[in-house]
Design a protein that fits this description.
Belongs to the UPF0014 family. By secondary structure, this protein is an all-alpha fold. It is built from eleven helices and no strands.
Length: 261
């Protein structure tokens, strides 16, 4: 006997009030703890805006997805929008110059081959109800590590510019000298995904697993799907980090004011 989604989390006034309280707590803690990295960044405001945006976007998606899952054109448009938003979000987190659009490369490099392989092998049907959530998980994972890897690599290169110049003085090419600094820092972006995979079932029960159980699937099938999602996500994220580091090492993706040493 399976639980119903309604019994898990009823949608009522109590839920709405609790969400507002939790959002206020998050913003309040960020304010009183001074979690904004610099005066130009208002982290509490970003938290509030993110929460409000999430509510509005999920409400809109709830309506749009009904059309997208039953229409091929709608499915394609939905996936393109998901990809475009991910690229724009990652790009804005890394730089404000014209190179932001290059974040399309790390996001696409892992996601597109993985989704294509699923479709070609027949493991996933070309149906919106299945393709949209799987693609969303993979795109979201690629987005996260692209931002984390890119920021860490760019920060480290700015901080250790002297070491890059010293390595070049010893004969290393510009790309190789930058790579020696950027790659170790960027590799930390893989840690959240690794920890999630290592502790699955012990610390957390991820959404795909719980969702399938609530939908009536057997624990074995739910576990198999969740295992696939976690492993596919690690592959996508590893590719995204590798491509991000390569773009930064080759000085294709950089911040305003940065220059090749």
């Amino acid at each position: 006997m399976t639980l119903s989604a309604r019994s898990l989390l009823p949608v009522n006034l109590t839920l709405g009030v609790l969400l507002v309280v939790l959002l206020a707590v998050a913003a309040g803690v960020a304010h009183w703890s001074g979690l904004s990295p610099n005066p130009s960044v208002n982290r509490p405001r970003e938290i509030v805006v993110a929460g409000v945006r999430a509510a509005a976007q999920l409400a809109a998606v709830s309506v749009i997805i009904t059309w997208a899952v039953t229409n091929v054109a709608g499915l394609a448009a939905f996936l393109v929008v998901m990809f475009g938003v991910a690229v724009r979000t990652a790009g804005r987190r890394l730089t404000s110059n014209r190179t932001w659009w290059l974040t399309a490369a790390p996001v696409a490099a892992g996601v597109v081959p993985t989704v294509a392989a699923l479709l070609l092998t027949g493991l996933v049907p070309a149906k919106g109800l299945v393709l949209i959530p799987i693609s969303g998980i993979l795109i979201g994972g690629a987005l996260t590590v692209t931002v984390l890897a890119g920021r860490r690599a760019l920060d480290e290169l700015e901080l250790r510019r002297g070491e890059v110049e010293a390595a070049m003085a010893l004969g290393l090419l510009d790309r190789d000298a930058r790579m020696e600094i950027a790659r170790p820092a960027a590799s930390d972006a893989l840690l959240p995904g690794l920890d999630q995979t290592r502790t699955v079932g012990l610390v957390t029960l991820p959404g795909a697993f719980v969702g399938m159980l609530l939908g009536g699937a057997s624990p074995l099938m739910a576990g198999a799907v969740q295992l696939f999602v976690l492993i596919a996500l690690m592959a996508v994220q590893a590719i995204a980090v590798a491509v991000t580091v390569e773009l930064i090492a080759r000085h294709r993706l950089f911040r305003p004011g940065a220059h090749a040493t």
